[in-house]
Amino acid sequence: MVENFLMIFQALPYLLRGSLVTIGLVGGALFLGFIMGIPMAVGQVYGNKLIANLIFFYVWFFRGLPVLVLLFLFYFGLFSLMGLNLPAFTSAILVLGLRSAAYQSQIFRGSIQSLGEGQMLAARSLGMSKIQAIWNIILPQALRISIPGWSNEYSIILKDSAVSYAIGVMELLTRANFISTRTYKPMPVFLTCALIFLLLTYGGVKVLNLLEKKVRIPGYAYGRREI
Amino acid sequence: MQKGIDKVVVLEVEDIHKKYRGQDILKGISFKVRKGETKVIIGPSGTGKSTLLRCINQLTIPDKGRIWLEGEEVIHTKKNINQFRQKMGMVFQDFNLFDHLTALGNVEIGLTRVKRMDKDEARQKAIEELKKVGLEEQANLYPAQLSGGQKQRVSIARALAMDPKVMLFDEPTSALDPELIGEVLEVIKNLAIQGMTMILVTHEMGFARSVANEIIFMEDGKILESGPPYQLFNNPKYERTKRFLKKITELYGE
Fold first, then answer.
1. Does residue B195 have a pLDDT over 50?
2. What percent of chain A has pLDDT over 90?
3. Which of B86, B113, B117, B147 to mutate to test the interface with A (most CBs of A within 10 A)?
4. Residue B121: pLDDT over 90
5. Which of A79, A173, B15, B84 has a CB 3.0–4.6 Å from the CB of B65, allowing a cystine?
6. Element (H, E) at B18
């Protein structure tokens, strides 16, 4: 027992550096997914038929494949076919991010469509262009509504980031596996790995919950219901 | 109510047609609104009154017909239409306040984002507009914290802040509890007294009678009859107008 603790204690800095890599993967993927997901959602709701169809196809593709298949397809296939020699870490961020964009776009689309049509009408009646109305009126409201769904996406991406083990990114799981094979003590190592994942999920969701409370519109019916 | 009406035509609407899902909603509407005039549009529901208002500021694009604002033709091109809409204030039946902004924010946003007004200047003007509708105390409240009547007054202030040439009211009191209607009508009445040019769709006949310079009775996508209130109420040309006025007065009171 004591020797297990000692082993974990020694391995912890190594694992924690892996957690930083994991956080990097998640942060990068969520960011890419966010900056792509918003214009995609807007395009799907307000764009012309062609744009909406292209986005529909994109979402269908990235939601339709297992994340590991996507990772292999891009890392071993498409990226080298395009003449890109990307490091595993970057490739993992790109694939997770491109995939997250598909999911995030649907979170934002749902929020945008949940707003009454009157918001756009009122904005246009003041003389705002469509873009101005989307930027000043629609998105500030839609993003607030999106936070619970987005928090879900965070926890999913966090866990999915572990697949980058398969292409050798030195993230948390890769490192845990490495220590496990060296020490022949899988149980304590993977338990620690699991614990770190749980803490990361907890911490991130907590932060997003706080954000949700902070940007809540006063008087609006959010949160718990009495009825 | 007596008030001076200039002869200048602010808004001219000519032969507006609109089809929606294969059905004719507007079948050729024409009228002129002079400066300082209050025109009230009445008629059974489904006759295209709201569609007509939306056609005027092109939130709905008419299939046929022309509109002039201060002699300039309102043409639906991307660049022009936003210019025209600034000059036509619109008040909706269900307020459509921006839910994420305070009362003050709602009034300010058109000034800062559309008119590109300086922040402090916009704030000053927004406060002024809220004062005019008696809501300076509520400036920092969000729409969800306001009563229906207060919401509608904010939405009037929001439209007025843009210094419109004409105000379009689309059943501004229809979504309100009876005891809240009065405060909104009061604001509109004051606007009429101050000489704002207005087109008002309403079922409040007593109010229509007291503020309108002219009442337009619409039915089935056309103007059946129009004239000054006393003429329509006391001596309507058509039996249909008389019946409608009688029915609506029984329903809504004077």
1. yes
2. 71
3. B113
4. yes
5. B15
6. strand B9-20
| DSSP structure class, residue A137 | I
Strand order in the sheet with B88-91: B88-91, B166-170, B198-201, B38-42, B214-219, B222-227
Which residue segments constitute the domains of chain A, with CATH numbers given? 2-214 (1.10.3720.10)
Please give the ipTM for the structure prediction: 0.91
Give yes or no for residue B47 having a pLDDT over 60. Answer: yes
Closest in A122, A128, A221 to B96, CB measured: A122
CB B217 within 8 A of CB B224: yes
Residue B246 carries which side chain, given as an amino acid letter? K
Residue B170 maps to a domain: no
Domain around B6: 1-84+195-254
User: Where residue B31 sits, what CATH number does that domain have?
Assistant: 3.40.50.300
How many angstroms away from the CA of B168 is the closest CA of chain A? 10
pLDDT, tens digit (0-9, with 9 covering 90-100), for A121-141: 999 999 999 999 999 999 999
Q: What is the pTM of this model?
A: 0.90
In a domain, B167, yes or no: no
The first and second tokens of residue B68, run together, are 């002039």
Q: Which helix (H) or strand (E) holds B52?
A: helix B49-56
Nearest residue to A26 (alpha-carbon basis) of A119, A111, A130, A99: A99
How many domains, chain B? 1
A127 contacts in chain B (CB < 8 Å):
82-86, 110, 114, 162
Interface of A with B (CB under 8 A): 116, 118-119, 121-129, 132, 136-137, 140-141, 144, 217-221
- Which residues fall within 8 angstroms of residue B231, CB to CB, at 6 or more apart? none
Q: Tell me whether residue B139 is in a domain.
A: no
Q: How far is A157 from chain B (nearest CA, A)?
A: 29
Answer whether residue A160 shows pLDDT above 80.
yes
Angle at A42 (CA atoms; ends A39, A44), nearest 5 degrees: 110
Question: Residue range A165-191: average pLDDT?
Answer: 88
Q: Does the structure show a pLDDT above 70 at A50?
A: yes
With beta carbons less than 8 A apart as the criterion, state whether B213 and B38 touch: yes
d(CA B86, CA A126): 5
Min distance A128 CA to chain B CA atoms (Å): 6
